[in-house]
């Protein structure tokens, strides 16, 4: 007998039929003798419907009232799923985040879980109940309803699994696992049997939107075995495991996956004075405007006193960032020239294997050169190399790198 | 400065525009220096939508899960109204039934309020906040969400007014007050300035669906001044006052209003043995089937040993009641003959004034006789006389009685 926490996202519970299908799936696990806690999101479209309603009334509602509003979405799903389970003969009880005791801080719309009271859950499970918990939501010390931010249901699932010491947290989505890259771009992409938490974090933050990044962090921190599976077809999915020891890394493939995004824009300040504090003088006003910066590269000019400073932001923030640089930063720096480009793409290789292997970068650059792809910016971390290229060459780059690093389906089959 | 509890029903908050209009109305009271607690129902149609969703999944869901589901309806409204108030510059905070501490028993879908914790509300009011509370819902001792049954938002409003010792509980509806009878049937019906709790109870139970009967009982019990007003137009509405002393009754009009319904059916058992317990042997199986009986009349037959027993039930229960009588009651009684009629109407005169006036009944019967309306059944209480007549004569009877008892608009104006 195992204890599973199973999380189903909005698409998986997007209709009455889907909710019934989830109930059947949960019932199969319970019939095998397992204990099951189910975490669900709002039915797909429901959260947006509520946000739209709010928008028609107040363009700046207090975050507390937004949480009060959107938290109804999951509350509808938990009761419907409990009813669907009851219909199949499975005793089930639903709980809101507040009822189950998911205590958070008071940062409405982006609250963080502080602790979970699991006594009631354990009692219900011992009685043979399936427990259905509203994802994405909690309650602060004053009893206000909070939400964890979009995608927070994954975090609820992992946090519950950690608190209950569950055998596995299963995240059911509309894909059947984590892929080496997006199959829509590269037809030879393949599902990974396992991936490390660290790699998953890099892939998630780079745009493979399978799992919420906080949920993966949480799983890593509390050693929760995390599995991504499809709601719609049976299969083993991808198991996300704790980072492996270096000894194992010889058997690791060099690269686990290739992430990419065309949703960034690049800004460069040329010939700025190379004095201490210049970076913060550039990025300070950007941060003040709550614009998130992704890649940052600074080259010291050969001549000495001048430097080129380049960074990327989300495409949606591009115009505002340009304006801030023009109006607030350039006058302050006294010198320098501003350039921007929002027709770029970022392509990243991710893999713990590259830690112990030299030559990943050079093979990457050579592969891109062979395809006549010009590299505009490079940034590296221990298990990741990212390059910025022209947006129109993105898919070509992904496919070439996928082949060059031995990730293509046929390569594996022929091994 | 007064403290008002204002309750707005589903139609009054049925759209974004209506919610904004409610916010404007509440703001006007607050701008005059009053403290306001607002109680709201789910947006009209929302509760039915949720019940329909549930019906597609499970035709017999547990009442606990039904409450979990439908309570989201009011939660949506409270947050939207709080946002609308904030938009007009009025600080507002919303609370679910559980958050405000509306403690109920655990009778899901028809729970009763046991107590209300008002500390948080008072604090918010003292800070100048408008407090928006979800009607219709509460929480039991174990933290389960409960609902008070359809129309329970009125009860929430009155209970909050009682707990807060509010100066007035204002129930905003789609009518501008309580009328002497239904204006759609009698064009000369007029709005009452005041009505006693007792009269209101008789009118409500007889089919004038302005207020939930439990709310009126509650108001009477706790001496809460209750006012019915229109959400859509300004006006004084009708004030529902505690029952007046007998000394005042000389100034009372004889009759306050005329209620009527065509939604009942009549069943008669003729020539049943007149032995002790016969009534319970007839009504026992009806009660066991959860069918509510309204009027009951028993005539002792002149000959002695036999009696005629007549009662009414809701029209929708007519066929089932007939079947129960045929299959379970008649064989048990040994003798008797069953008759039924579902083409009847009940017309009732209500007024505390009739307590001290003889002759109301005779004037009623004379009026009906003059219109050639045959009376099929009579039942009286201290402040009410009801007659059962043919359904097709109902409107004629209402108009004739309205005129005969001096309720017509012109009569009042000529006084």
UniProtKB/TrEMBL annotation, chains A, B:
The keyword Secreted does not apply. Coiled coil: none annotated. Residues 267-352 form the ACT domain. PROSITE patterns: ACT (PS51671), ASPARTOKINASE (PS00324). InterPro entries: AceGlu_kinase-like_sf, ACT-like_dom_sf, ACT_Aspartokinase, ACT_dom, AKii-LysC-BS, Asp/Glu/Uridylate_kinase, Asp_kin_monofn, Asp_kinase. Its EC number is 2.7.2.4. CDD domains: AAK_AKii-LysC-BS, ACT_AK-LysC-DapG-like_2, ACT_AKii-LysC-BS-like_1. Gene3D superfamilies: Acetylglutamate kinase-like (3.40.1160.10), VC0802-like (3.30.2130.10). Substrate binds at residues 47, 74. Pathway: Amino-acid biosynthesis; L-methionine biosynthesis via de novo pathway; L-homoserine from L-aspartate: step 1/3; Amino-acid biosynthesis; L-threonine biosynthesis; L-threonine from L-aspartate: step 1/5; Amino-acid biosynthesis; L-lysine biosynthesis via DAP pathway; (S)-tetrahydrodipicolinate from L-aspartate: step 1/4. It catalyses: L-aspartate + ATP = 4-phospho-L-aspartate + ADP. GO terms for biological process: homoserine biosynthetic process; lysine biosynthetic process via diaminopimelate; threonine biosynthetic process. GO terms for cellular component: cytosol. ATP binds at residues 7-10, 173-174, 179, 184, 209-210. Pfam families: AA_kinase, ACT, ACT_9. Keywords: Amino-acid biosynthesis, ATP-binding, Kinase, Lysine biosynthesis, Nucleotide-binding, Transferase. GO terms for molecular function: aspartate kinase activity; ATP binding. NCBIfam families: asp_kin_monofn (TIGR00656), asp_kinases (TIGR00657), PRK06635.1-2 (NF005154), PRK06635.1-4 (NF005155). Belongs to the aspartokinase family. PANTHER family: ASPARTATE KINASE, ASPARTOKINASE. This is Aspartokinase. It comes from Modicisalibacter ilicicola DSM 19980.
């Amino acid at each position: 007998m195992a204890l599973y926490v199973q999380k189903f996202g909005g698409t998986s519970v997007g209709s009455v039929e889907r909710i019934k299908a989830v109930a059947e799936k949960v019932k199969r696990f319970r019939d095998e003798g397992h204990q099951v806690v189910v975490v669900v999101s709002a039915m797909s479209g429901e959260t947006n419907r509520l946000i739209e309603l709010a928008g028609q009334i107040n363009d700046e509602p207090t975050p507390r009232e937004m949480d009060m509003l959107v938290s109804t979405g999951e509350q509808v799903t938990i009761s419907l799923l409990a009813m669907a389970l009851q219909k199949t003969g499975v005793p089930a009880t639903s709980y809101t985040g507040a009822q189950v005791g998911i205590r958070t801080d008071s940062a409405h719309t982006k609250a963080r879980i502080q602790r979970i009271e699991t006594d009631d859950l354990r009692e219900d499970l011992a009685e043979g109940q399936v427990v259905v918990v509203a994802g994405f939501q909690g309650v602060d010390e004053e009893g206000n309803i909070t939400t964890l931010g979009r995608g927070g249901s994954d975090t609820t699932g992992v946090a519950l699994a950690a608190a209950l010491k569950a055998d596995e947290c299963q995240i059911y989505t509309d894909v059947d696992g984590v892929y080496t890259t997006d199959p829509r771009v590269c037809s030879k992409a393949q599902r990974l049997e396992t991936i490390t938490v660290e790699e998953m974090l890099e892939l998630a933050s780079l745009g493979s939107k399978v799992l919420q990044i906080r949920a993966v962090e949480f799983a890593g921190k509390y050693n929760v075995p995390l599995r991504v599976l499809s709601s719609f077809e049976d299969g083993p999915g991808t198991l996300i495991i704790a980072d492996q020891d270096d000894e194992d890394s010889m058997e690791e493939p060099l690269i686990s996956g290739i992430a990419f995004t065309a949703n960034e824009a690049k800004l460069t300040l040329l010939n700025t004075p190379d004095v201490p504090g210049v970076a913060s003088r550039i990025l300070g006003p950007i941060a003040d405007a709550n614009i998130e910066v992704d890649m940052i590269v600074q080259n010291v000019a050969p001549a000495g006193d001048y430097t080129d400073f380049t960074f990327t932001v989300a495409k949606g923030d591009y115009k505002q960032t340009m304006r801030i640089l023009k109006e607030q930063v350039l006058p302050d720096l006294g010198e320098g020239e501003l350039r921007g480009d929002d027709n770029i793409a970022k392509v990243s290789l991710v893999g713990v294997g590259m830690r112990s292997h030299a030559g990943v970068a050079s093979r990457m650059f050579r592969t891109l050169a062979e395809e006549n792809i010009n590299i505009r910016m490079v940034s590296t971390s221990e298990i990741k190399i990212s390059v910025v290229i022209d947006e129109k060459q993105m898919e070509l780059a992904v496919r070439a790198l996928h082949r060059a690093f031995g990730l293509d389906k046929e390569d594996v089959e022929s091994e």
